[in-house]
Amino acid sequence: MNHKEILTRYVANFVDELYQSGLRDVVISPGSRSTPLAMTFAEHDSIHHWVNMDERSAAFFALGMAKQEKRPVALVCTSGTAAANYYPAIIEAYYSRVPLLILTADRPHELRDVGAPQAINQIHLYGNYVKWFHEMALPDGSDKQFSYVRNKASRAFHTAQQANAGPIHMNFPLREPLVPDFSLPNLWGEKNNGAYQVSIEGTQVIGKQQVQSLIAQLSQHKRGLIVCGPQEDTSLAKAVVQLAESWNIPILADPLSQLRAGDHRKAHIIEGYDAILKSKNIREKLQPDFIIRFGAMPISKPYLLYLQENKEIDHFIVESKQGYREPTGERVQFIYADPHQLCTVLAKETVTYESPWMETWTEMNNVTKSILTEEDELLTEGIVAKELIDMVPDSSTVYVGNSMPVRDLDTFFMTLDKKIIALGNRGANGIDGITSSALGAAANGNQVSLLIGDLSFFHDTNALLMAKQYQINLTIVLVNNNGGGIFSFLPQANENSEHFEVLFGTPLHIDFKHVINMYGAQYHQPMNLDAYRQSLMDSYAYKGLSVIEVLTDRSENVRWHKQKWQRIEEHLSKIFLKG
Q1: Per-residue confidence (pLDDT) for residue 199, from 0 to 100
Q2: pLDDT tens digits for 257-280?
Q3: Residue 497 has pLDDT above 80, yes or no
Q4: Where in the chain is the domain with CATH 3.40.50.970?
Q5: According to CATH, what is the number of the domain 3-173?
Q6: Is the pLDDT of residue 474 over 90?
Q7: Which CATH class is domain 373-565?
Q8: SS3 label, residue 336
Q9: Is the pTM of this model over 0.90?
Q10: Which residue ranges does the record assign to the Thiamine pyrophosphate enzyme N-terminal TPP-binding domain (predicted)?
Q11: Cα-Cα-Cα-Cα dihedral of 237, 239, 245, 247, to 10°?
Q12: How far lies 10's CA from each of 13, 47, 182, 452, in Å?
């Protein structure tokens, strides 16, 4: 075989094995050195290829798609800084446990470290933020090369999903000429009716003796809590609710827990816990004996304070496979077991806790919800989040940006029976790549709405090209308070007003309408609540990208939120006085 045939068959076998293993989507950023990979993926009829010219956007696009589809997505780029631009999304994927296959093309070894153009050291480029790194061998035409590439492709795909899912990095040194020959017979190699390697991963379960030990410990207590933080398993809700009902204890449900919406029962779900726990006086009256947490650490800062103020409780964290997600540094017990099985087993145990504890939480939650859902003439940031949740179509996804949007979702996302998947990039909590991630989640036809602030939107405007290129349906609710609204709630807002705006407020003074028009999107700027509702309805009837920009005032937003929280504290205090 000559070089072109060797290269073609080498890459074709690799690509086909990814398909045989289960890959269905690849996001490609154009470049020269990656030509064999890019063209071969495009040639494969059963793999959908997406072209995104901005590597940073491409990586977050793949991340959002992998989150939504719950399967690995591949990324392809050329050598040099193109690969470095993947880094933020890879970090996010690592911490949020999202399976990605990063395939970076590279110069061959003789062109490394000699001043060749577009050549950087790509070996272990992403450090500890990938589950596995492998540098592929140069195509050589040996008899074993096809089994080698299929072995590595299959291993990479399955490793990305095993245990805690995460990113995999494979580096491809490639020599010129780079253009493959697709006229070759039997291009995709021998068909074996399945993946080269098959991984069967069992479920980690808690044993009978461990259950008895745990029940003996918990039976000593009177007041417990179940907490469910960010996690993406929509089927977990019913199991967690079953446990809470059996034991008669509350569930503090994060907005990204997948518990606030769906067809499961919700009487034990306390969605207003963030607002309830903002008051130190109220927190002191709600001391639990134990907490069992599923999912990642909740978004709520008051909940973190609540944990820090109750250091002596029995605190259990459930992880299905492995991991350590406990930022308080306090004493904690980890339970490594399948959460469905754990809930089912524990619910069968005869453990019931005192009713006044559950009744108090329910009453507090009802009071909190009544204040937060009051009719308001102002189109505030909280009302924007509440109305979005109320109006999104059934069986859709809400993607939420970090900083204020996710906190407003935490406060104003009330329980409802619609099926809503709530997603966010809460691994590293950055503001970069949010729009790209939402577009990735919507790319395969899912109905997605994005709630995002102006700084995050500005940070990722390149993402809008993907919506234009592929006519992706996405509703973006852009909350524009001309800067970093979350900083207005933090101590630095009161420390030095001379420097606050420049260093933290960071006003943009940008008319986003021009940017949105440039990408051919539908644009709305409602000035009142009725107009906002109409804009949402119009956006869901529109095919393509629709952006609803809501102008708010940072100072007024702080005042409005604090007024709500103060009223909640006053009303909750009366509950304890009455008791």
Answers
A1: 78
A2: 999 999 999 999 999 999 999 999
A3: no
A4: 3-173, 373-565
A5: 3.40.50.970
A6: yes
A7: alpha beta
A8: strand
A9: yes
A10: 14-124
A11: -130
A12: 6, 17, 12, 43
